[in-house]
Please model this.
Amino acid sequence: VHAIGDAAIEQCIRVWERVLAGKPSLSGARHFIEHFEMASAEHVDAAVRMQLHLSMQPQFDATWGGDVGMYDDRLGTARMHAMNALARIVRSGGILCGGSDSPVCALDPLAGMQACLDHHETSHRLSMSEALAAYTVNAARLGYVEAETGALAVGQRADLVLLDRDPFETGEFQSCRVLETWRSG
Model:
């Protein structure tokens, strides 16, 4: 379900609470909310409790967040500070998946991971490992392919990119350049 605003997210959460009795899907279905930008703490807690996957676009914050961005201008400062609460989701045990919503933002996972690190609200920032997981293992899980891809592990396809430097040494993703892309090893 696509739900950006608080009213749409509220409606989604309440419907899933009725359908799922407030618990994870018994059938193993991976229900998800695309965007989930204006979620309250209660929405996050409910999504975590029901194991909803949250497919978000961190580049939205990089593009529109901050004191002079579109969020502040159109929604006001208080709501702007609450937008895209990435760290709250992850630290609550939520399943955060990163994306770009291309062509709204560039189809650039490195820019998306960098946006996770640079969130305009410091309390919403992710660590390097958390940002990487959102774009790899969690995204694979959302697509039901975590047994095939998403991590470098025995028995998996070895889908990977070779970068010109180690982002964990530099502390940033954005300055990295992709040298090669490997699919299935």
The beta strands are 2-3, 32-35, 53-56, 95-98, 160-163, 178-182.
